[in-house]
Design goal:
The chain is built from nine helices and 18 strands. Strands 1, 2, 8, 9, 10, 11, 17 and 18 form an eight-stranded mixed β-sheet that branches. The chain has a seven-stranded mixed β-sheet with strand order 6-5-13-14-15-12-16, with helices on both faces. Strands 3-7-4 form a three-stranded antiparallel β-sheet. Strand 14 and strand 15 form a beta hairpin. The model has no long low-confidence stretch (mean pLDDT about 90). The chain binds flavin-adenine dinucleotide (FAD). The site of flavin-adenine dinucleotide has 37 residues, from helix 1, strand 3, strand 12, strand 16 and helix 5.
Length: about 375
């Protein structure tokens, strides 16, 4: 059996990004994706344009919309409009297009894609990993990247990442036609959703609508939210197919590496616990994981630990604040909306957060102080 340098489980944003960077570095890479190319992913597709910095090829072929304006509302009223500056910092991508495109780039760089093939077992032998697939394929590899998303069983089994997972509950609806949503406009609705928010993002021939709850165990009656939200966008409340999913969100700083093993994207619980931003950390972690593994394969034994540290510093530090903001904002959302979103400086801050130019840590101390004083 030929030994691979890296086997990547999951060909989503995180896995495909890692596959591209590793293959480009001349490594022997197998990328394994369970679903076929056409499966629709439950994702709004909102993405900071700054992720372009992580790729030497243009991402524009998969950008459906460039967002120039963000509309906020509280129970469909009390609007706030944020015009995003000329540099167009926020894009909307159609997820399945983005993932396929990144996987194609990885293949062009030399990775081998197995699709649709699911991984059913991974085992560590003395110096390598043994990976078993549902089509009977068995692979041996010096290292493994776990990139199989929010339902990944491997972090718990292998004792890496958070011991306890924290989930946002989401429902997404893809609609044909744009309704009343203006081109280039993204919409965020607070107030209709208990402990969360609803969103509407334009794509080339339709809209991605979603409902997410981020704290608490109480079930949200999603249809009740959609009964109000969809007509406000010019759609019938029953329109579109619903996809319900649990999204693993950031839950503290934890090592994201083992012996020849790295976690990336949702499998590493990197998704933002306040706004469900998971694409940027997926792409960043794919990039950073690839850099660390390249060094580790050259015998730098500490480089995998370096990956955990880098993700802690460059992403986790902001997410720790994001989690605190979520806990306060979603408990007192009306106050949060008035003091956070309706502030005169909010549009500029929002643009900076959506673009990735500003982290939660930069604004958190002031926001929390303000909310607690109001309580
Ligand atoms: C409703 C909703 C809306 C969202 N909206 C946004 C948004 O607007 N902006 C944003 O930034 N983030 C958003 N997110 C979060 C974002 O979608 C995720 O954080 C992102 O998909 C993480 O990418 P990933 O590659 O880690 O995981 P995934 O995209 O889930 O990819 C994992 C891949 O692994 C494959 N897989 C699973 N098991 C196996 C196996 N055993 N063998 C082989 N393959 C396997 C899966 O088929 C999948 O393709 C949203 C999430 C949801 C649920």
């Amino acid at each position: 059996m030929t030994i691979q340098d890296v086997v990547i489980i999951g060909g989503g944003a995180a896995g495909s990004s890692a596959a591209f960077h590793l293959a480009k570095g001349g490594l022997k890479v197998k990328l394994i994706e369970r679903k076929d190319k056409k499966s629709i992913k439950p994702c709004g597709g909102g993405m900071a344009a700054s992720v372009q910095n992580f790729f030497p090829f243009s991402l524009s072929p998969v950008v459906d919309e460039v967002i120039t304006r963000v509309d906020f509302s509280w129970r469909l009223n009390d609007p706030v409009v944020a015009n995003l500056p000329g540099s167009s910092p926020f894009w909307i991508v159609r997820r399945e297009k983005l993932d396929s495109y990144l996987a194609e780039q990885a293949v062009s760089a030399g990775a081998e894609l197995l699709q649709p093939v699911g991984v059913i077992n991974i085992d560590k032998s003395k110096n390598s990993w043994l990976i078993t697939c549902d089509n009977g394929t068995e692979l041996e590899s010096l290292s493994v990247i776990i990139a199989d998303g929010s339902n990944s069983p491997w972090p718990s089994k292998l004792g890496v990442g958070p011991k306890k997972h924290n989930f946002a509950k989401t429902t997404s609806v893809r609609l044909e036609g744009s309704g009343t949503l203006q081109k280039g406009t993204a919409r965020f609705e607070f107030g209709l959703v208990h402990h969360g928010f609803a969103w509407a993002f334009p794509i080339s021939s339709g809209i991605n609508v979603g409902v997410g709850t981020f704290i608490g165990r109480q079930e949200t009656d999603t249809q009740e939210v959609l009964d109000d939200f969809l007509p406000s966008l010019g759609f019938d409340p029953q329109e579109g197919d619903r996809q319900h999913s649990k999204l693993r969100i950031w839950n503290g700083h934890h090592p994201l590496h083992g012996d020849g093993l790295l976690l990336v994207g949702d499998a590493a619980s990197l998704c933002d616990p306040f706004l469900a931003e998971g694409l940027r950390p997926a792409l960043i972690s794919g990039y950073e994981a690839a850099n660390s593994l390249k060094e580790w394969l050259k015998d730098d034994t500490f480089s995998l630990e370096g990956y955990s540290k880098t993700m802690h510093t460059n992403w986790g530090a902001s997410m720790a604040w994001g989690r605190r903001i979520a806990q306060v904002f979603y408990r007192f959302p009306k106050v949060g909306y008035q003091l956070g979103i309706k502030r005169p400086t909010a549009p500029q801050r929002i643009a900076q957060i959506l673009s990735g130019e500003m982290g939660y840590g930069d604004i958190a101390q002031r926001v929390i102080k303000r909310l607690l004083l109001q309580k």
